[in-house]
Amino acid sequence: MQIDAHHHFWQPARGDYGWIPEDNVILNRAYGPADIAPHLIAAGIDATILIQAAPSIGETEYMLGIADSTPHVAGVTGWVDFENQAHRAELARLAGHPKFLAVRPMIQDIPDDEWMLRSDVQWGFEMTNELGLRFEALGFPRHIKNFLTIFRRYPDMKVVINHCMKPQIGARDAMQFKQWADGITRLAKETSAFCKFSALITEADNNWQTEQLRPYAEHVIASFGAERVMWGSDWPVCRLRGEYAEWRKAALELTAGLGDAAQAAIYSGTANNFYDLGLQ
């Protein structure tokens, strides 16, 4: 069993993907199950987690529709508006779908870094926890301090950090690496959060090399332990720096020195356990 714990499908014609530049030929096009199928087959992927990419209920319902007709989509991470109390009912309704497993506010795109601490959005974290859903933490290293606060405030909430908290690999800055690494260590030691081993090539530059990614991969795995780390492709966003197979190959090289049990956890077991997929 091999699991891709993080990928997207989208249709720009829906009109709710405001972050996609109109002139970006890689991102500004539709992606669906037929587009990813060859990559999953080549990599031997059996199941995937489909992640929201637009801040709308409509896109979440669109993804659930795809999940209903796509066997490899084992779960969906959707979106609700934490600033809108009326979305309590929406979250409860969505949670009734067997493949709706998690919620992801697009915190990286919110101008106010203190947003997650606001009193008016706390219901979202509380209800996510009460419904037994998971919270996907999408942010940058500058958000680590506030994520620590939230994860401690809701210690029973199942949390997974997206994309290793997006270290700025392309900057090649030793101080930035240290600040990120120190934050990752605290998140791992002081909370029960999991971490997605994904998007490292996206945060690198166009000329990235696998060895450039190694300090980041090794620090995440050493900090969290393989049992709290899961691999994700971040396809098709990864295509900004490399194709699905290129990132998969780099990831396998970066984890080749681990034992069989650790590799099995990163590429299957951790995601299976975290999302309660029950796959064998």
Concise account of the structure shown:
By secondary structure, the chain is α/β, with parallel strands linked by helices.
Question: Which features characterize this protein?
Answer:
TIM Barrel, eight-stranded parallel beta sheet, 280 residues, alpha/beta, 39% helix, 8 strands, single chain, globular, 9 helices
Description of the structure:
There is one protein chain. Helices cover 39% and strands 12% of the residues. It contains nine helices and eight strands. It has a single domain (3-274), classed as TIM Barrel (Alpha-Beta Barrel), CATH 3.20.20.140. It has an eight-stranded parallel sheet with strand order 1-2-3-4-5-6-7-8. The protein has helices at residues 33-43, 57-69, 87-95, 122-130, 144-153, 174-190, 210-224, 244-254, 260-274, and strands at 3-7, 47-51, 73-78, 100-103, 134-137, 158-161, 194-197, 229-231. The mean pLDDT is 98.
Describe the secondary-structure layout.
Layout: E1 3-7, H1 33-43, E2 47-51, H2 57-69, E3 73-78, H3 87-95, E4 100-103, H4 122-130, E5 134-137, H5 144-153, E6 158-161, H6 174-190, E7 194-197, H7 210-224, E8 229-231, H8 244-254, H9 260-274
Parallel strand pairs: 1-2, 2-3, 3-4, 4-5, 5-6, 6-7, 7-8
Helix pairs in contact: 5-6, 6-7, 7-8
Q: How many domains make up the coordinates?
A: 1
How many alpha or pi helices?
A: 9
Counting copies of identical and different chains, the oligomeric state is single chain
Question: Tell me, what is the CATH class?
Answer: Alpha Beta
Shape: globular
Work out the helicity level. 25-40%
Based on DSSP secondary structure assignment, what is the total number of beta strands? Answer: 8
